[in-house]
Design a protein that fits this description.
The protein is an alpha/beta fold and 491 residues long. 29% of the residues lie in helices and 19% in strands. Strands 3, 4, 5, 6, 7, 18, 19 and 20 form an eight-stranded mixed sheet that branches. A seven-stranded parallel sheet has the order 12-11-13-14-15-16-17. A three-stranded parallel sheet has the order 8-9-10. α1 links the parallel β1 and β2. α7 runs parallel beside α8 and α11 packs across α12. The protein is globular. The N terminus and C terminus are likely disordered. The chain binds zinc ion (ZN) (2 copies). One zinc ion binds next to β15. The site of one zinc ion (ZN) has 4 residues, from loops. One of its GO terms (molecular function) is hydrolase activity, acting on carbon-nitrogen (but not peptide) bonds.
Length: 491
């Protein structure tokens, strides 16, 4: 007897799936025929009034967290500003924020008269930076790297986990993320509507790759794609027509970036980082579809050949890049594309108690090579945006990435720019965020440490004393009674 999964069989509950699996294991004559089923259960509703991140006025969609009071003016005074552009720090500055937007920046001695209800935040010479951006996270993932483990979880648990991880990310000084699969667009909407506190999120929703590739997490016996959790992380498509259709479907769901698998990877059971994923032709049609909708494509790309396939297909965001060669570095430069080296995940040794044996072997193999390759790309001057792959490693330590970039030869100021304005350019948000400038969103991070002499200190959230998002204080580790200025200037 041959079992063949179909879209209708995918509608079963987790209990049904478990029963299938158990029955299969007990049945020696049965074979599971892998047909890469896709969910096919759409609810046709009226057009949603909620716009996707690429539509409408971006300012109106700014995420607010839970504590927004955008009408009150906030003045951050006695600040040393590192503005995210790479310019030298400017001491004794003040920043005035109103309606969530930076309204005035200048020497503290020239601070204009402000309304009576202005909240003065005296940071006593501490450094203020733009809110950081992590362009590679998976908020629904928690570092449990046995794909079959998701078979034992209800789908909704992913989303509750995402809520907690969004808060942890904000606590670490990250006010904007790009979630490259696993979380639903609902998470971005929940932040946007102030239902939960978290970074503003641009979502890939599902990653897409070829059958047997990095987004195909099914084990040999489990029809993994049938499980909602597994299906949330990755979908499969083969051939240009199928890739085009799946890209259109993911874009329809609200994706603000399309995530593709250009190579194999560490955590997928049936491929390796050196293997190609989608072909150049498949990726080319996905780029075409994304571009048509005003969206760009990010590629999980670890092996040297797949990196080049992705770049030749027109992909602008190369994730990981661990095995990049000189030709790939030159293509990055020629195509004006970004490298997102995800060093926090790449350099973290695998935990054999959590990861499968195949993942431990692949991870150690890549880890031995990546530092040299990424350092060479840094030295060649490629554009770099900060991304951590948090979710593969625990959330809430995102800014450790800055220190690792500096360990591989990057100047501390360039690392800060990679986590602020350069990341904003990749996310196409640089017109409204990513640097401290009049007219931009007031996403700010305050630290008592000196980031230029001790960049590693930013990796510990305890050294982030304040996080301001859209002009509202959303994280405050100061002792407010002592640190808040009693200075109440009146109009
Ligand atoms: Zn990846
Ligand atoms: Zn990832």
């Amino acid at each position: 007897m041959t079992w063949r999964s179909s879209s209708s069989s995918c509608t079963g509950s987790i209990e049904t799936l478990a029963l299938w699996h158990d029955t299969y294991l007990q049945s020696t004559g049965h074979k599971y025929q892998n047909s890469a089923p896709q969910h096919d259960c759409y609810v046709h509703d009226v057009e949603s009034p909620i716009k996707s991140p690429r539509q409408g006025n971006p300012r109106s969609q700014a995420s607010g967290g839970l504590f927004v009071n955008t009408h009150q003016a906030v003045a951050v005074i006695n600040a040393t500003i590192i503005d995210g552009t790479g310019s030298a720090p400017r001491p004794q500055q003040s920043i005035v924020v109103r309606d969530g937007v930076i309204e005035w920046i200048g020497p503290h001695s020239e601070l204009p008269t402000l309304p009576e209800n202005t909240e003065f935040v005296d940071i006593d010479g501490a450094t203020v930076l733009p809110g950081f951006m992590d362009v590679h996270v998976h908020l629904a993932m928690d570092g449990s790297l046995n794909p079959a483990g998701y078979l034992h979880e209800p789908d909704a648990l992913l989303h509750f986990r995402g809520v907690r991880n969004a808060r942890r990310t904000l606590d670490a000084g990250v006010t904007t993320v790009r979630d490259l699969s696993g979380s639903d667009y609902a998470l971005a909407m929940a932040v946007e509507q102030g239902i939960i506190a978290g970074p503003r999120a641009i979502m890939a929703i599902h990653a897409m790759g070829p059958t047997g590739g990095h987004s195909d997490s099914r084990t040999l016996t489990v029809p993994f794609d049938c499980h909602p959790a597994g299906a949330h992380f990755g979908k499969t498509a083969d051939g240009e027509d199928a890739a085009r259709k799946l890209a259109r479907e993911i874009l329809r769901m609200g994706a603000g970036v399309v995530k593709v698998m250009a190579t194999g990877g560490v955590w997928s059971p049936r491929d390796a980082p050196e293997h190609d994923g989608f072909t150049e032709k498949e990726m080319r049609v996905i780029v075409e579809e994304a571009t048509n909708k005003g969206v760009y494509v990010a590629a999980h790309a670890q092996g040297a050949n797949g990196i080049k396939n992705a770049l030749r297909a027109g992909i602008k965001s190369i994730e990981h890049g661990y095995l990049i060669d000189d030709e790939g570095i030159q293509l990055l430069l020629d195509n004006d594309a970004w490298l997102v080296p995800t060093l926090l995940t790449g350099t973290t040794p695998p935990d054999p108690t959590k990861a499968t044996a195949y993942a431990v072997e692949k991870k150690n193999r890549v880890r031995a090579l990546l530092e040299k390759n990424i350092a060479r790309a840094f030295a060649a001057g490629v554009k770099v945006a900060l991304g951590t792959d948090s979710g593969v490693v625990p959330h809430g330590q995102n800014l450790r990435e800055l220190g690792i970039m500096v360990d591989l030869g990057m100047d501390p100021m360039r690392a800060i720019v990679a986590g602020t304005l350069e990341a904003a350019r990749l996310l196409r948000l640089d017109g409204e965020a990513g640097s401290i400038a009049v007219g931009k969103r007031a996403d700010l991070v305050v630290t008592a440490a000196n980031p230029l002499t001790d960049i590693h200190s930013l990796g510990d959230p305890q050294n982030i004393s304040l996080v301001i998002q859209n002009g509202a204080i959303v994280v405050d580790r100061r002792i407010r009674a002592l640190a808040l200025s009693t200075d109440r200037r009146t109009a």
